[in-house]
Amino acid sequence: xxxxxxxxxxxxxxxxxxxxxxxxxxxxxxxxxxxxxxxxxxxxxxxxxxxxxxxxxxxxxxxxxxxxxxxxxxxxxxxxxxxxxxxxxxxxxxxxxxxxxxxxxxxxxxxxxxxxxxxxxxxxxxxxxxxxxxxxxxxxxxxxxxxxxxxxxxxxxxxxxxxxxxxxxxxxxxxxxxxxxxxxxxxxxxxxxxxxxxxxxxxxxxxxxxxxxxxxxxxxxxxxxxxxxxxxxxxxxxxxxxxxxxxxxxxxxxx
Length: 255
Prior knowledge:
about 260 residues, alpha/beta, Spore Coat Polysaccharide Biosynthesis Protein SpsA, Chain A, two-stranded parallel sheet, globular
């Protein structure tokens, strides 16, 4: 059976983390390890994680990317799954991840969307259609493949080992999931499974400032990779890789 590590970066999120860990405890396919990366909490975040049996690490450099990267580095599972402290995974979340990776060896990263909870109906609609659907649509056009959604994805450990030295893991004002998406090689594939869903809090959209900050981070992430990772260059690199793959396969087919 494939081993799975679940990584959760957190900062002062004790209440929501407790619900997330409770949901993980009821999974039909249990995690082989849960890693909580404490990013400098002053509340009971670390204590709650330890009480639930999670392995607790400390990352003093503030930011989601530094914390998440520390968790990925420490993960021992063949598959590294990622949630946020406010994520609410359904009971079959890990089972679905395991099944898809086992049945599709070509998958490098598996990701899915989130369903917003909390806030008022307008905030949830704004988050779902403007932010969530807008992210998948616009970044798919830019990348040439689906982007990763950081609150709900899983990757092979070997993929992280390959990419960890290229990502901007020490930068806190960019989107870690988009940065990771950009640094994948042409042969590394992302599968978007819209059935792989988790609940996520709508609290980032309680204010226009919160929404604006996330849009601003998206701009900074793309700007950081300009012009090396423009859409045209990304598609050209993928075409070259596909052409090279066909050339390598042709002699084998003839033989």
